[in-house]
Design a protein that fits this description.
Blueprint: H1 4-11, H2 15-23, E1 31-32, E2 38-39, H3 42-56, H4 61-73, H5 78-119, H6 134-143
Antiparallel strand pairs: 1-2
Helix pairs in contact: 5-6
Length: about 140
């Protein structure tokens, strides 16, 4: 069993967030001691891992609540749970593509400004993309398409 402070540290989450999850019913298997202190077991830690995954993937708190409810309802909700994760997978894949495009632009601009610093001006820009080194040309193309 883990205390709320230990779980807070383990997941780098404020204690207030863990209390909020409990209050909102996102941790239905959370046990309490006789004096009312929250006690987190491995099952609850796994629920927090899933909640954090869903949050990071852009899932709303309401949808996370639905998911947790579906988990309590058992096998009849497998299709709903699968659908939620498939939707979030697609969302994350799209975010990754956008971040890759952003990274490509940053790589190109790093090269560009290194050249500007080296040359003392931006006259070279008129010859882009012909003068680009192959690895930067790839970034340039990916950033501009």
């Amino acid at each position: 069993m883990y205390s709320i402070g230990e779980v807070s540290e383990k997941f780098q989450l404020p204690i207030s967030t863990l209390r909020y999850y409990d209050k909102e019913g996102l941790l239905p298997n959370l046990k309490r001691s006789e004096s009312g202190i929250r006690q987190f077991d491995e099952q609850v830690l796994e629920a927090i891992r899933v909640i954090e995954c869903l949050k990071k993937s852009g899932t709303s708190i309401n949808d996370i609540k639905d998911f947790m409810l579906w988990c309590e309802q058992g096998p009849s909700t497998y299709d709903k749970r699968l659908s939620l994760f498939e939707k979030q997978k697609k969302h994350v894949e799209n975010e990754i593509k956008e971040l890759e495009k952003t990274l490509n632009m940053i790589e190109f601009k790093c090269w560009y400004y290194n050249e500007a610093v080296k040359n003392g001006d931006e006259a070279f820009a008129e010859r882009i993309p012909e003068i680009l080194p192959s690895e930067i040309e790839e970034s340039y193309v990916k950033a501009h398409h």
